[in-house]
Design a protein that fits this description.
This protein is mainly α and 81 residues long. The protein is built from four helices and no strands. Helix 1 packs antiparallel against helix 2 and helix 1 packs across helix 4. It is globular and about 35 Å long.
């Protein structure tokens, strides 16, 4: 499973309750669409740190890194780089 599928599966399972009807566009804002709230961002951070063995710094907790599927993928790819 690649990064995209891992993150997408996590979001669907944890925030959309595994709904088969759930769709997430690659650039859909998690916050604006109500998929993830500020508490949910912390759950995503925990997932990202555990799954990809990276450390998320406080100053990196910004929407530019965590507010959509594509932004998360870019962030994880950069941190692994």
């Amino acid at each position: 499973m690649d990064i995209r599928e891992q993150i997408k599966s996590f979001v669907i399972e944890n925030f959309l309750f595994g709904s088969d009807d759930a769709t997430i566009g690659d650039d859909d804002s998690f916050l604006e669409s109500g998929i993830i709230d500020s508490t949910g961002v912390l759950e995503v951070v925990g997932f990202i740190e555990d799954e990809f063995d990276i450390e998320v710094l406080d100053e990196e907790l910004v929407p530019d890194n965590f507010d959509s599927l594509n932004k998360l993928i870019a962030y994880v790819t950069k941190k692994q780089g």
